[in-house]
C-alpha cells in the first residue's frame, strides 16, 4: 500500500466521522423539550393594544393579558387552540390553524389563554 492511497482514505474517514457528528448534534437539537412554535402569535386586547409573542414554547398553557383578547392571529408553524379560561380548560374553545386568525363573535367573552397542537 502506498502513502498516497492512505491519505485519501483517512480524509474520507474523517469526513464521515465529522458528518455523523454533525447529524447527531442536529438531531439532538431538534428533539429537545425546548421546542418553539416558530413565528409570532399576535393578539389584540379589548382596549385595542396589540401584543406579539414571538416563537413561544409549544408546551404548556400560555396566558393572554388579564383583560383577554378579541382577535388572535396565529403566525406560527403550529396550530393553536384558544380558551375562554386562564388555564386552557373548559368549553368554548376555538381552533386556529397555522397562518390564520380569528375574531370573537359579538357578545362572546374574550380569549384568555392558548395552547399549541403538537
Automatic annotation (TrEMBL):
The keyword Signal applies. Residues 1-26 form the signal peptide. Keywords: Signal. This is Lipoprotein. It comes from Streptomyces pakalii.
Amino acid at each position: 500500500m502506498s502513502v498516497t492511497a492512505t491519505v485519501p482514505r483517512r480524509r474520507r474517514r474523517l469526513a464521515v466521522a465529522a458528518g455523523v457528528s454533525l447529524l447527531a448534534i442536529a438531531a439532538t437539537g431538534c428533539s429537545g423539550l425546548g421546542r418553539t412554535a416558530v413565528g409570532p402569535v399576535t393578539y389584540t386586547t379589548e382596549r385595542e393594544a396589540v401584543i406579539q409573542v414571538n416563537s413561544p414554547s409549544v408546551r404548556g398553557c400560555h396566558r393572554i393579558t388579564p383583560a383577554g383578547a378579541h382577535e388572535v392571529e396565529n403566525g406560527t408553524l403550529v396550530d393553536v387552540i384558544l380558551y375562554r379560561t386562564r388555564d386552557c380548560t373548559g368549553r368554548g374553545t376555538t381552533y386556529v390553524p397555522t397562518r390564520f386568525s380569528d375574531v370573537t363573535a359579538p357578545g362572546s367573552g374574550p380569549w384568555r389563554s392558548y395552547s399549541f397542537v403538537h
